[in-house]
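As a warm-up, study this chain.
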Amino acid sequence: MKKLSIVTAILIGAALSLTHAQDLKPIQLKKPDMARKGTLMDALSKRQSIREYSGKMITDQELADLLWAANGINRPAENKRTAPSAMNVQDIDIYVMTAQGVYLYDAKKSTLEPVTAGDHRAQISTQPFVATAPVSLMLVSDLSRFTRGDDASKANLAALDAGIVSQNISLYCASANLATVVRAMIDADKMTPVLKLKPAQKIMLNMPVGYHK
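Now compare it with the structure written out below.
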């Protein structure tokens, strides 16, 4: 199956907005740019919550770097991530929402896998600014990956794991001069079918991402 760049995919998004997810194509992400300049201290000094975005789509490289920084694989031999997780269960999945559709980030293959076609960003929340970001990341925990503990302890661990991924996203955006904000006000009733979640999967956080307006 032919794979498209994210920019090419967005350009044909309007034509695909009424199609089924199987009509979307997987998107092969670029390799992360490990030579990016900037220091952690500089990123920390610039980190802030921003709720206004340019409508321009971020570049292929920025999207690839963003997702790798968020929860990509940094030690392939051990299948370990840029974000730690409780008991290394790696419960946090990242869903990527754009004008074209909804994709699931596959860190092992470095691809975006189709989930649902169409632009569903306005359904995330009643806050109108959310739909203006060209990319919206949904952090979802699969609680079934926790093999120990009761429901309350699993929920607490999922929240901690989501928070770590969220901070990775925030710091990457600060270092790359991208705007983002951490959000917990999410319409789960609307998003659950859009993301095609199983009962054990819980939406934890939403992070719109885009260029500064």
